[in-house]
Amino acid sequence: MTAALAVILAVSQAWSADIATGPRQATLSEVVALVLEKNPAVKEAESRSRAAEAALGEARLSSLPRLEADAAATRGDNPVYVFSTLLEQRRFSANDFNVGFLNYPGYMNNYQGQVKMVAPLFTAFEASSREKMGNMALEGARDAENSLRQTLRLQATRGFLAVLAERALLEEMRARKSSSEDEIREARRLKEKGLVLGSDYYAATAILGELKAWERKVNGDLSSAELKLWLLAGAAPGEFKAAGVLGSAAYDLPPMREMVAAAVRERGEARRAALAEASAGVDRRRVQMSLLPRVGGFGTFETDTWNFQSGPSNRLVGLQASMPFGDPTYGARLARARAAEEAARAARSKIEQNVRAEMEGAYASYRGLVEGLPSVRESVADASRSLQMVRPLYRNGRQSVMEVLRAEEARARMEESWMEVLEGLHGGYAQLLFLEGRLDAKAIETIDERLR
Prior knowledge:
- By secondary structure, the chain is an alpha+beta fold.
- It has a single domain (44-64, 119-291, 299-450), classed as Outer membrane efflux proteins (OEP) (Up-down Bundle).
- The protein is 69% helix and 12% strand.
- It has helices spanning 2-21, 28-38, 40-61, 79-88, 99-103, 126-192, 198-232, 256-266, 268-288, 330-395, 401-436, 441-450; strands at 24-26, 66-76, 108-122, 240-242, 294-305, 313-322.
- The strands form two sheets. A four-stranded antiparallel sheet has the order 2-3-5-6. A two-stranded parallel sheet has the order 1-4.
- A hairpin with a 7-residue loop joins strand 5 (294-305) and strand 6 (313-322).
């Protein structure tokens, strides 16, 4: 009985502690790490990189000598088969020249074992071409994996910022609703005494109703943003709470031309387009050299026996060369390879042009947002000053309660605009780094520091 009570007490204490502490606080860096750890697309990209690495190893090893072992058991009465088998078994004698035996030798058994080594010496650059293309495929797979990680970092950052913005706006909406309700209660008391016009009172209550509806909408938007972030992180609803506030300090940016040049050089799409063009060039050169001769060495060790008691052996080594002569498909294959290279070159040019346009547009938008930051900040301050000034005027009977509620609403509107600007400030910076191909763990840490 005592043990059972102890268990119940321990469980109740742990449950009370969970209620008291609530969900754990998670920074942006922690949430991003959780997203990268739990997202199945990352595991898929990692597997593709390992597959490309294995394919490169296969291409490299294909130029090494290959050893084969064969075994065969044969039985036949074909005169040529019997004659050659007697020679291979070292059993040929003068009696075997008998014409009758040569024509009708009877059945002969042979058990053959063979070890063969084949060594490619010159493959018309086929092996080196496969290795180069394997290297490019591996680099492309790793680059695709890196691009996926950056995409997930951007998604997690945007989701995290949306939660912080909605939470801050919800706090402001609750404050505006609470103070507006206080003003309405006071106005109701004064209206009953005939000191406040009924039209002003009902107009003020209408504004309060809009504020309440707006608060419920913001609360729903916050719940939706949190749920999306939990799903992206592979976490249970309520498992963590995004920690931080949206700071207003702008980020330092290098000149636009430097970021555009870096994006063309480092952006995932541009890098993979360059690799595709290079790979197409390697394939075109491979086709061009496909008419060259191929040379290989070989060696065999063979045993032939009829009773497994004696096993005479023979050895054979040599060189073998082959060369396609009059290949009717050569022209078509070369035309196809050249067209593929030209298409890859054009695709790379198009992608680089799109990267430049995206980068320049995002850079200009971010600079415009930063330049407009002081004016929005001043507008928020003006709305706050207006609210502070209209309250005493209302108390002195020089303004109506409707004007107070309008000032409350204006303060909430400006707070919403301010949160949008701050969310755009941090999200726009993350977008720029993503477009540049530099949204790595260090960049996330830099953004995280501005949110603490």
